[in-house]
Amino acid sequence: MTPSATEDPDVPARPLLDVDAVRADTPACADVIHFNNAGAALPPKPVLDATVEFLNYEATVGGYESVLDREDDLNRVYRAGARMFNCGEAELALTSNASEAWWRAFSSVPMGPGDRILTGRAEYVSNAFGLMQARRRGIDVVVISDDDSGQIDLAELEDTIDERVKLVSLTHIPTSGGLVNPAAEVGAIAKQAGAYFLLDACQSAGQMPLDVEALGCDFMSLTGRKFLRGPRGTGLLYVKSSILDDLEPPIFIDGYSADWTGVDDYELQPSAKRFELFETSFAGKAGLGVALEYALDLGLAAIEQRVVGLGAQLRTQLASVGGVTLHDRGVNKCGIVTFSIDGVGAIAFRDQARGAGINVSQTVPSAWQVAQGAPDGSIVRSSVHYYNNENEIDRFVDLVSTVG
Ligand SMILES: Cc1ncc(COP(=O)(O)O)c(C=O)c1O
């Protein structure tokens, strides 16, 4: 039998993504090398158009009226989110950002003095604050070590988890590094022990496929502006519908999250909508729906392949530059690439790169207290997306070579 083109070792694998097409959809690619996708990615044109169009429509017919007229467009975010994360539409709540989504989930987990939370060393700063508050309320918060590769130590997690543990809280990809934590393995361990699993997928959403069933999570928090390429001021929270009745009421609710049913009584929405508030950026909501559809159309597996490939290429090229130290850890790495240059501060480098038309960021010491000890401000965070290309990597590495 003749092998098909994809099976023939002499035929190069067809790129899964049409890079020229996605760059053409991203007008800013002509002007800037955007390696700050872990901060906020460049939105594609359809997202920008949907957001601006909704804002214009609001201004034309009225804010409340536009919601009535455009319900179907506004519901795209739940439909597309359900497809992307393999959950029900009623299991998704729109939030303004990932921190809000995480806090709403966290505050609804029934816990009291003597109960335990297990977490990892890559936990994001907002989440760490929540864990500190829990500790001050008498809840025991145990930080599981990293293993030798830098990811959460699964053996230690398994040894430590017991019936006292009510929650396992994990950041999938830390804000300040290329590590991808083994979320599905953590989810399986939490499930086995009967603990809730809260996954911070802020940096992984839009970078790779996320299936809440495969990940075994009860909650998942994420933001719109990063690898999903959605508008700023948008986020999502997934809450597994089968646990809703066992949870505490969300940290704050309004007349949308609940019905005022009696003088001294209220009833929460019977879905994840209880984690949503009435007022939001409806233009952002419309834009986020389009961003999710856009990523689904490209395919999350294809996106992951491209992002991981570009990240690996950037690491390889940076490693050959004298004076550069790479900092990414873990067995699996993503599109976030962190490094330092001998004798060069990260902020000074960021500003110099900006002057050369390249956007990067720096790690924030206060976000690393738990993660890896406070760094000295020398670590640059560059983060690639599928619309970046090899030529941009060459130009970036050239810049690093001249600075180092
Ligand atoms: C891993 C991680 N979690 C949570 C957040 C918080 O996201 P937001 O700023 O949307 O609240 C960030 C932001 O950088 C992050 O990197």
Question: CATH homologous superfamily of the largest domain, by name?
Answer: Type I PLP-dependent aspartate aminotransferase-like (Major domain)
Tell me which CATH architecture of the largest domain applies here.
Answer: 3-Layer(aba) Sandwich
The structure class reads alpha/beta
Instruction: Assess the beta-strand content as a share of residues.
Output: 15-25%
Mean pLDDT: 93
The quaternary state of the protein chains shown equals single chain
> Main sheet?
7 strands, mixed
CATH class of the largest domain: Alpha Beta
Small-molecule binders here are: pyridoxal-5'-phosphate
List the uncertain runs: 1-6
Distance between the termini: 54 Å
Helix content: 25-40%
Domain module tally: 2
Q: What is the count of DSSP helices, taking H or I runs of 4+ residues? A: 14
Q: Spatial order of the strands in the main sheet? A: 2-8-7-6-5-3-4
Number of strands: 15
Would you mind describing this structure in some detail?
This protein has 404 residues and is of the alpha/beta class. The protein folds into two domains: 19-43 and 299-403, Aspartate Aminotransferase, domain 1; 48-297, Aspartate Aminotransferase, domain 2 (3-Layer(aba) Sandwich). It is built from 14 helices and 15 strands. The strands form four sheets. Strands 2-8-7-6-5-3-4 form a seven-stranded mixed sheet, sandwiched between helices. Strand 3 (116-119), helix 7 and strand 4 (140-143) form a beta-alpha-beta unit. Helix 2 (45-61) packs antiparallel against helix 11, helix 5 packs parallel to helix 11 (282-298) and helix 12 (300-319) packs parallel to helix 14 (390-403). The longest helix has 20 residues, at 300-319. The chain is globular and about 70 Å long. The protein starts with 18 loop residues before the first helix and ends with a helix. The structure holds pyridoxal-5'-phosphate. The site of pyridoxal-5'-phosphate (PLP) has 13 residues, from helix 6.
